[in-house]
Write a structure and sequence with these properties.
The complex is a heterodimer of chains A (110) and B (112). Chain A has 110 residues and is mainly beta. Chain A contains no helices and eleven strands. In chain A, the strands form two sheets. In chain A, strands 2, 4, 5, 6, 9, 10 and 11 form a seven-stranded mixed sheet that branches. In chain A, strands 1-3-8-7 form a four-stranded antiparallel sheet, with no helix packed on it. In chain A, a hairpin with a 5-residue loop joins strand 7 and strand 8. Classes of the chains: A mainly beta (110), B mainly beta (112).
Chain lengths: 110, 112
């Protein structure tokens, strides 16, 4: 069974640009979570989607947004990139109790 | 803000020694989970302990949970260089619309 996949693996952008990150969940999982992990820090919760709806969002500005598609895959969009958006962005899905993480997208904003 | 707090923040031990890291949390939980993260990669689920369990084992891992103190510990026995990673606890809260709260992590370095 395939795990959670994310694309791209690495991305370099400049300030002010926009970026879209993608996540495909494990087959049968309907929830997708997005996290931001700045270098050397813990995970900061960004967004939670379930059954196509945004269920909750963390303490991030509106320029962080996303959506979930009918096949439960998800996109995270970040507009007007700032230097501090440089981080590892992790996507996770879950079964009844456990979250399963993708390998992440490393974003560097110059 | 993050509910979980791991300590120590960093730990350096020799291969073959045991490593213990702790996690404290603030609210009632359904379960607590430990994850490992190798440098710059995704998190790997290690073990889950439910709120009605006090101890759980998986291979070289031993997890304890004390709900009265709102704390958990992860013990890695006979550590190996390959155990070098960051370890995070995550709590599945009973209340609230967001289910998983991650701690700040313990960076473990096992010296060969």
């Amino acid at each position: 069974e395939a795990g959670v996949t994310q694309s791209p693996t690495h991305l370099i952008k400049t300030r002010g640009q926009q970026v879209t990150l993608r996540c495909s969940p494990i087959s049968g999982h309907t929830s997708v979570y997005w996290y931001q992990q700045a270098l050397g820090l813990g995970l900061q919760f960004l967004l939670w989607y379930d059954e196509g709806e945004e269920r909750n969002r963390g303490n991030f500005p509106p320029r962080f947004s996303g959506r979930q598609f009918p096949n439960y895959s998800s996109e995270l969009n970040v507009n007007a990139l700032e230097l501090e958006d440089s981080a590892l962005y992790l996507c996770a899905t879950r079964d009844q109790e456990t979250q399963y993480f993708g390998p992440g997208t490393r974003l560097l904003v110059l | 803000s993050q509910q979980g707090e791991e300590d120590p923040q960093a730990l350096s031990i020799q291969e073959g020694e045991n490593a213990t890291m702790n996690c404290s949390y603030k609210t009632s939980i359904n379960n607590l989970q430990w994850y490992r993260q190798n440098s710059g990669r995704g998190l790997v689920h290690l073990i889950l302990i439910r709120s009605n369990e006090r101890e759980k084992h998986s291979g070289r891992l031993r997890v304890t949970l004390d709900t009265s103190k709102k704390s958990s510990s992860l013990l890695i026995t006979a550590s190996r260089a390959a155990d070098t990673a960051s370890y995070f606890c995550a709590t599945d809260r009973v209340s609230g619309t967001y289910k998983y709260i991650f701690g700040t992590g313990t960076r473990l370095k096992v010296l060969a």
